[in-house]
Amino acid sequence: MLSTPFLHALSVAAVFVLGGFVKGVVGLGLPTITMGLLSLAMPPGQAAALLVVPSLVTNVWQIGGAGFFALLRRLATLLVGICAGVWWGAGALTATQGTGAAWAGAGLGVALVVYAVLGLLRFRWKVAPAHEPWLAPLVGVSTGLVTAATGVFVIPAVPYLQALGLAKDDLVRALGLAFLVATVALGASLGRGGALPPSTIGSSLLALVPALAGMAAGTRLRRRVEPETFKRVFFCGLLALGTYLALRGLAALA
Fold first, then answer.
1. Cis? peptide before 198, omega within 30° of 0
2. Counting beta carbons within 10 angstroms of the beta carbon of residue 109, is it exposed (0 to 12), middle (13 to 18) or buried (19 or more)?
């Protein structure tokens, strides 16, 4: 008979395969999928710690290509803002009991719901270049605060980057760059709070294998399916998961 620890490890590996698969198909989704599903069985802070290495490596893979340094200069204030927001919000995600854990779970659920609704509505807005100097750091700080509280990097950075009118390849690199910086900042925050011991880093390193396997499979599938159809399924599932997490967290606070 399979042991409970083995089943737990198998379940975690399956979550990372799914998260990597979604990222391979649509270019994002690893943190949202893994944080949402893993938080069903463990505190959000623990789930975020497992995510650090897979997110770091997959986003380094994503950012290469021509024009990287020009993109880095353009997004510099956004990236600095993300780091500042994560630093200011440090500790919100590492609560493992009481109202702190409940708020973290509810916050994660709300973030997933907002992201899913924006995706299903195909919400798009445009940011004029003249507004980038003041808007980018505000979006960065907001994203950092949400990341520190939920472990999810997507709100409001993803809608903002989509609004810049970047070419497809530049957008993929910009998303990877923002996620990479958020991962590094979150990892540093978790390490400073004692939530990233060597044993957890080892587990996160092991989680990289299924994440890369899923990403490779998703990349191959991307050539055969319509990405927009896949995204609708992805956002519907995310909406259901986020609603459940939010309601569970709010029930725990009642």
1. no
2. buried
